[in-house]
Design goal:
binds zinc ion, 8 strands, TIM Barrel, alpha/beta, 330 residues, 43% helix
Length: 330
Amino acid sequence: MNYFDLPKIDLHCHLDGSLRPQTVIDLAAEQKIELPSQDPAVIKEMMVAPETCPNLQEYLDRFALPIQVMQTKESLERISFELFEDAAKENVKYLEVRFGPQLHTQQGLTYAEIIDSVVKGMKRAEALYDIHGNYILSLVKLLPIDSVNDIIDAGVPFVGKGVVAFDLAGAELDNFAHDYVEYTQYAREQGYRITIHAGEQGCGQNVYDAIELLGAERIGHGVAIKDHAEAYQRVKEDVVGLEACPSSNVQTKAIPELKAHPLNDFHKDGLAVTINTDNRTVSNTTMTDEVTKVMEQFELTAEDYKQIYTASVEQAFASDDVKKHLMQFV
Ligand SMILES: [Zn+2]
């Protein structure tokens, strides 16, 4: 099977984990940020996490350099454009990118300016390539909670026009969902769809709570439901989309190795499993790589891929028109 040519959908990709190394060098020069090297290979090494990290912090540290250069409108627009361009060039037909507006205010940008910049970059790529996309506003859980509603408000004018959903990301403590009920409720009232990182580092109960308390329609990762019958049943009954990110899950030790990933068991049992990159640079991957790894590891057939692709279309927070377009590729 030619995995490069397959139509692909990525529903879980972080903007700040998906920068081109040369772009970091260019932007650092423009912004007078000193880098230890001008060699893209060295810069790439600073951003790529080891294949298995000793701990989650090792993985998260890889985002420090990208965040430094992502503090101007121009850099956000460019990085967004390039991410969609890179995805389009490997036959990704639909891409949902998430990012935390709170991380990009260091030089005084407003949340509205930040969101506008990334949406502009995406739209520029949509006009040039056969790709469609949307943005998800991610709240990084350890950052101050009092600005959450300001972020949600800033995104409202973009809802349905480039922004579609709200997400909670960052370190996963047990029972975190209880602290965010009012915020996700507010986001839903403002027209946002909800996806939540849960059951990655944390327990299956977090997945159950994300659905029950926060109204999650999709779950980022969710591998922990394999050990939690109630959460598993709830995901199955509610047809909650599971955003599997195979390489990232190995890197962060959410699973010990790829062959231990429960995504194939989930898929065989009829759960709505999708395959995603998480971070193209930090996980040193592409959609082609992720699809190849999964198809080969679990010896999936063309029919399996068709089911996974179809589940991805159904789970996408895209308009009906875009979904119809995406189904043409099946
Ligand atoms: Zn993620």
